Amino acid sequence: METILDRIIFEKHKEIKNLREVVRHSTDHETDFSLMNHLKDANTLSVIAEFKRASPSKGIINRNLDPAEQAKKYEQFGAAAISVLTDTTFFKGSFSDLKIVRDTVDLPLLCKDFMIDKVQIDIAKEHGANIILLIAAALSLPKLRELYHYAREQNLEVLVEVHDEEDLEKALKTGTKLFGINNRNLKTFEVDLDVTERLSPLIQSSGGYIISESGIFSREDANRVSKAGVNGILVGEALMKSQDLSVNLRELLIPLIKKVKK
């Protein structure tokens, strides 16, 4: 049976053809902002604050926010990095959003998309990304390795996302030290924080840094995944709907309970 992830990847293959045909111009967005360096020194849970207009599971989340203004607030209220959804078909984002945020803040910037081809990595870098996302469930092991090493050659950090033990086995074979645990099953879009609690100890034993993604809305949620040993959290919907980021973002910056051994 076709899953949501299958539909997204099908559309991505069509987009890739168009991206290759676009005449691109090099842009001066070379920056050295590092999420890894921040995580090494952080004393609180690090928040990657996300700019996300919509999602397949929630529909429109907030179509009216300006990416520059939202990014300024994220930076002002303590975000360690900013994630920008660049998928248009399912998340209503764009690479233009990525460039706007890059021009606005001095923070590590994650290009959040379903990466299946090197051209996406090139465009992400041209628009100011310091980090790209690679989703283990969406890629074969050879393709995951290929894209991982290509991004590292471009001086980009790579957040390798996993949802289960099979994904984690693939991720470990890339050599990455930056793992995202997605609490959302991309095949069904169901969310369960138990996923972080189950996988985090396995990653800690590898010496990796861990970002818990999806399903985090409150300080209680942040405390729960922090107790599992993560270094940071990626939060989108809760912050995009927030009426007071000065409260809602800062309440997630809880003291780290346990750090990954270096």
Structure write-up:
- This protein is of the alpha/beta class.
- The protein has one domain (45-252): TIM Barrel (Alpha-Beta Barrel), CATH 3.20.20.70.
- Helix content is 39%, strand content 17%.
- The protein has 11 helices and 10 strands.
- The protein has helices at 4-21, 35-41, 67-76, 95-102, 118-126, 141-153, 165-172, 194-204, 219-227, 237-240, 245-248, and strands at residues 46-51, 54-55, 59-60, 81-85, 109-112, 131-135, 157-162, 178-182, 209-213, 232-235.
- The protein has an 8-stranded parallel β-barrel with strand order 1-4-5-6-7-8-9-10, surrounded by 8 helices.
- Strand 4, helix 4 and strand 5 form a beta-alpha-beta unit.
- The longest helix is centred in the N-terminal third of the chain and has 18 residues, at 4-21.
- The chain is globular.
- The chain starts with a helix and ends in a 14-residue tail after the last helix.
- The model has no long low-confidence stretch (mean pLDDT 92).
- Radius of gyration based on Cα positions: 17 Å
CATH homologous superfamily label: Aldolase class I
Task: For the record, give the distance between the C-alpha atoms at the N and C termini, rounded to a whole number.
Answer: 42 Å
The structural domain count equals: 1
State mean pLDDT (0 to 100 scale). 92
Which stretches are low in confidence, meaning pLDDT under 50 for 5 or more residues running? Answer: none
Shape: globular
Helix content: 25-40%
CATH architecture: Alpha-Beta Barrel
Fill in the CATH topology. TIM Barrel
Topology pattern, helix = H, strand = E: HHEEEHEHEHEHEHEHEHEHH
Summed up, the helix count is 11
